[in-house]
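Support request, please re-run this one:
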Amino acid sequence: MKTRGCIQPQRHGDTEKGKSFSSAPLCLCGETTFAHTKARRTQPESGPSGRGNQNQKKSCQENEPNYGLTPFLHDPKTPEDKLPHPAIRPYPIQYANAWKLKNKAPVFIRPIKPEDEPLMAKFHETLSEESVYNRYFSALKLSQRVAHERLTRICFNDYDREIALVAELKVPKGEEKKILGVGRLSKQHNPGEAEFAVLVNDEWQRQGLGSELLRRLIEIGRDEKLAHLSGAILGDNHAMQHICRKVGFKVEQNGDNNSFRASYNY
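Re-run finished. Output below.
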């Protein structure tokens, strides 16, 4: 039966900056072929037939269960969604593409990266007290919002559990980059459920960016096979209530009369 599979390299050695994968060819016994070459140079052959090399080869074969390259084989008819996933989910580049605001300003919407921490700190400096309160339901201080421990956690996503999108303003080469808005989808403990949150720079509000970020979060939820996406909105945040209704959410008032719940069923 034909099979398909991948080869997982064994980790060998460290570099000055940390661990890395060895580029040296590996024998089935787990040693590099360079190591065997060196051994053969120092080990005399036991006659014209080269019995010493044969013993070396036999030794390698006997140690085959400890080989350094491990094949994982799957039936070629196995669907993509049934194949095993890597332990760390790769950067979801499929959610990155260009877009334009109502004023024609070009932006690039993409998943957040760990190196976005400085840009996120500057983004928070642009937010008004009202925007902060509407997003976090409290007057969260700037020093708290830009704390390194917090931003590190926000910028480093486990893409199996959450995905944050940032809208980056396209600027001429050499000019400082700027994040205009952030949308986040966070999966909940109940399978198939997630919550969303959207926050836009005050200067760039009313340009359609909040609606676009929310639309993209809906599509990500669909790709993730979610059943339900929801979010809490303050009663005074009429703009967010309008955006949610605009893109297909059902917005209902909670029992406390101070907040609303926006719900989207797939």
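The first helix runs from residue 33 to 42. The chain has a mean pLDDT of 81.
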